[in-house]
Design a protein that fits this description.
Length: 172
């Protein structure tokens, strides 16, 4: 028992939980992992998205690019080699929901499935954006859409970590 206590005294502190990270810290992780440390590539990626989405749309990045590890098994980002981990974008707002076919939803009109290799045709208007983003980062990019309240539930109440790429404008 004394050995266990001694080990815990000398062990390095655990990395902060993703929920405890600031937006700036999450951005730094994303830039390091997904953009090879290049702030310019990150900014170009965000600008490309901004130009392609409807106004009043926010964009968040979820998954291992933010946390550094896969939720399923805890493997590190790109554990299977460079460019093997995907980027999971969620477009947040009312207008983006309309870009998805009725068959492209987990919850119709509320929360879509991601446009991905498995489901490429559920939001045809997003295919050019997805292809451009994948070429920019040399890895798969999945794009889904959700309503504000779902993002609030997932992020604030359930605690699923995400990094905001594009803030949704506040409308009074």
């Amino acid at each position: 028992m004394a050995e266990l206590e001694q080990e815990s005294d000398t062990a390095e502190p655990a990395a902060p939980d993703a929920a405890e990270l600031t937006e700036s810290e999450k951005r730094d992780i994303v830039i390091r992992l997904a953009f090879g440390g290049s702030r310019e590539r990150y900014d170009e990626f965000c600008n490309c998205i901004r130009e392609a989405i409807p106004e009043d749309t926010g964009v968040v990045l979820r998954g291992s690019a933010v946390t550094g590890q896969r939720w399923k098994d805890g493997a590190p980002f790109d554990a299977d080699g460079p460019g093997t981990s995907d980027l999971d974008l969620t477009l947040v707002g009312d207008k983006v929901i309309g870009l998805f076919k009725v068959t492209g939803f987990f919850v119709p009109g509320v929360h879509s499935r991601p446009v991905s290799e498995e489901d490429p045709d559920i939001a045809p208007d997003l295919i050019p954006l997805r292809e451009k983003l994948m070429a920019m980062v040399n890895r798969p990019v999945n794009i889904q859409a959700t309503r504000d309240f779902v993002m609030y539930l997932r992020g604030e109440l359930i605690g699923q970590p995400y990094h905001t790429l594009i803030e949704k404008p506040d409308r009074d």
